[in-house]
Write a structure and sequence with these properties.
Number of strands: 5
Distance between the termini: 26 Å
Number of helices: 5
Strand content: 15-25%
Order of helices and strands: EHEHEHHEHE
CATH topology: Rossmann fold
Radius of gyration: 14 Å
CATH superfamily: Response regulator
Helix content: 40-55%
CATH architecture: 3-Layer(aba) Sandwich
Strand order of the largest sheet: 2-1-3-4-5
Largest sheet: 5 strands, parallel
């Protein structure tokens, strides 16, 4: 995958988060929103396969994919690259800020690692500027 081919897929729990959309636009990241391809409530199995077939990377705040055996199996079976926010306590603004800081590393990880892969995006700690 070439860097210019880097595309994020925003799952349905993030596809209308304005700070995320603004961060991606500001950083010239190509993205697709869940709502542009599927109805709300579409089974993860369906859209994960769709995303994997296009070599896109998923951005989600749903951590259950790491813990739920069915979800984890779907990620592996379809060869999905997924990045998730490490805390369910992020506000939209915090997610946008953390994503902005993490994007260079997200791009690198997508290029360096074959699918399947899962990475986390951490909340920025006050005072140190690091995720």
């Amino acid at each position: 995958m070439r860097l210019e081919d880097f595309i994020l897929y925003l799952d349905e729990n993030l596809d209308n988060c304005q700070p995320i959309l603004e961060t991606l636009s500001t950083n010239y990241v190509q993205y697709h929103r869940h709502r542009d391809h599927f109805q709300r409530g579409t089974a993860d199995e369906v859209w994960l396969q769709f995303v994997a077939e296009r070599s896109w990377a998923v951005l989600t705040k749903d951590k259950r994919n790491r813990y739920n055996e069915i979800e984890r199996d779907a990620l592996h079976r379809h060869g999905v690259r997924e990045f998730y926010f490490s805390s369910g306590n992020f506000t939209g603004a915090e997610m946008g800020e953390a994503l902005s800081v993490a994007l260079p590393q997200v791009r690198i990880k997508v290029r360096m690692y074959n699918a399947p892969m899962v990475g986390s995006i951490f909340k920025i700690r006050a005072g140190d500027g690091r995720p």
